[in-house]
Structures are given as structure tokens and as C-alpha cells.
Amino acid sequence: MIVAFSALYDSLDFRIYWLGGHVVMDGSHLYQERIAGLWFTNTPFMATLFKPLAMLPLTYARVLWQLTSLAAFIWACSVTTKMTGRAASLVTVVAAGLLLEPVWHSFFLGQVNLFLLALVLADMHRVALGRPAGIGIGIAAAIKLTPAIFIVLLLVTRRTKDAVTACVTFAVCSLLAYAIAPDASRTYWLHTFFDTSRVGVTYISNQSPYGTLARILHGTAEVGSWYMAVPVTISILGLTIAALWARRGDWLIATAVTGVTGLFVSPISWAHHWVWIVPALAVLLRDNHRKTALAGYIVFALSPLWWTPHNGDPREYGVHLLTPVANCYLIAGLYFLVHMTVRLRHQGRPTPWPSPQGDRTHTRPRATSTPSRRPGRVVL
């Protein structure tokens, strides 16, 4: 089915990636001219990665990309189930995961989200096992900046060597892109990467606090400079929660909380960016919060935000009865963070931080962190 869809449907975001691979070395045109009617908003490193794919015909390149995306998602599901410490049918997990709107929407658009999820989860699994990590997170951050929040998580959890590895990897990837496309790199890092005017901030798919507030206030012009305090506060609170769970040896919760926090910190968190629902649901199911997991699955499978007025409809803006529905991903994410915060009170005392003498001194965390967990199967 993936092959047939990829061959027949011209996924817009993938087309932009593919065209970006064509123009990445053409001066600064990558960021100064629209591609397929839209701006290229990803990093120069992302564009350089598409240089080889740009040599293929669009259809062949798209089929290859989508099949590789599927492989990345299967890998992400496999790593997630391993981090739960419980037996699960990988086929069932993948099948259920593909029904989640952020996942299938990533395929629909030909997006990069599933690769980022797989790269970060692979590294966080190594961290949970006490092994050296950081390369996957560094590559993910070089492709799209939001995964860089995991570097901060590594720092606050005293995984300093892993954080340095991630930073070095990020720098190497960015310098490689600069060597290949210096003009595009200068334009991006000096002007483009903090410019949110190139995308429709108020579009219903933007489920970040910034997007929600812009819709309520009828535009970004009404959001003052005071808003900068919001992502800073959220990042501090979210990373604190994640660090406390990591200190208790539960790196799956730490990973899910950090992923959701990153979505809140970013000014643009499209619906298809919310693939972090996969580890979040795994946490809830592992810990036998089945009703909460079912409610979350229904929200992200049915995606009722798309049922509300959007695409410029005046009813999309302001506060009204449909506002909670229109921002249901944001509300679900907030609930998850609060839920994980409340659960900290019911856990035992945190263990001391592992010795900073070396990564290999870390011990493997227990597969379970709550006494109520029982062996069983996990279905996402």
C-alpha cells in the first residue's frame, strides 16, 4: 500500500525536499525563493541530504523515501517496546501506530518526522542501557532543530559525554552543509531559522502554544515579546520533570516528556510533528493507565481538530465552544505533562545520579518503575 500510494500521490513536503536538493548549491536561492509555492524551512544539512535523492526521478525518489520512512517507524516502534520492558507484538504495535494521524500524515506529506523519532529513540535506548550515545540526537538536531532539546536533557541528567557527542555531531553535520552550500548556510543561520513569518502560524495544524495563542488573539501581531517567557518556562518545567524520571531510572518517560516539551517550546508544531504520541502511549499502557491511553489514542487517531473551521474561516479564531477541540493536541500534551508530574509523588525516592567518571558505569534501569505493573502485552 505504501508503494502504491508513493507512486501515485505527489506528497507536497517531499517534493519541496527533493527540489531543495536541486537548488541547495545554487547560492542562497534555497531560502530566498519559494519552492513549489512554499518556502524551504529546514536546515541546509537537510537539503544536502537530499542532493543524492534529487538525482533520481521524483517518483522513484518518493517511493524510496516512503519505504525508508516505514522502516524508520518500525525501528522506532521496536525500540519503544524494548524500552517498556514488556512483551509486545511488533506487527500489532506498528499497525496501530500507522492509524495515528501524526504518523499517517507524515507519510501523506512525505515528512521527515519518523526519521527524527527513530534517531532520537535509538540514542535514548542506549542511554537507558548505560551505553555511549549522542550521534543520533546530533544528526536529528542538524536536520531539524527541535530535537536539540534532548541535548539539554543529556546535560541535566549528567550524561555529559553523550551531550558533547551530540553537539559535535551537530557541528560536523552543519559544517559539512556549509562546505557544500556556504551561501545557503549563511542565509539560514543569520536570517531564516528564527523567522516564523514564512509559515502560516495560525493554521489549525500548528498545535503549539504560540499557534494556539495567535489564533485566540486573531494573529501573531497581537502576541507581544512577553511570549518568550512561555517557552522558557515550559522548557524548564518539562526538562525538570524528565530529569526526575531519568533519576528514577525511567528513561522512557523521560524521553516522552522531553519530546512533548519540545513540541511546546517550538513556535511551530504541526500536527504531523506530534509523532511523540507513540512513546507517550507506550508509557501509559506499560503503567496500566489504559483508559487514559485509550482516550489519547482516540484523540490522535480521529484528530478532531480537523473537524473544526479552518483554512482561513473566521470561526477559526478567538475563543468559542470549539476552541478546546481545535487545540486538542496541545491540551492532550499538557495533560500528559501534568499526569507525569502528579505521578512523581507516588514514586519512591530518586536514586543518586550515576558516577560521572564514565558512561559505562551506568547500570541498566529496571524494566518497571511502578509496583502495579504486571507482565502483559502492549498495544499502541
Automatic annotation (TrEMBL):
GO terms for molecular function: hexosyltransferase activity. The keyword rRNA-binding does not apply. Residues 348-380 are annotated as: Disordered. Signal peptide: none annotated. Pfam families: GT87. It comes from the Bacteria. It is found in: Cell membrane. GO terms for cellular component: plasma membrane. It is a multi-pass membrane protein. InterPro entries: GT87. The chain crosses the membrane at residues 63-83, 134-157, 163-181, 225-245, 251-271, 321-338. Keywords: Cell membrane, Membrane, Sugar transport, Transferase, Transmembrane, Transmembrane helix, Transport. Belongs to the glycosyltransferase 87 family. This is Sugar transporter superfamily protein. It comes from Actinomadura verrucosospora.
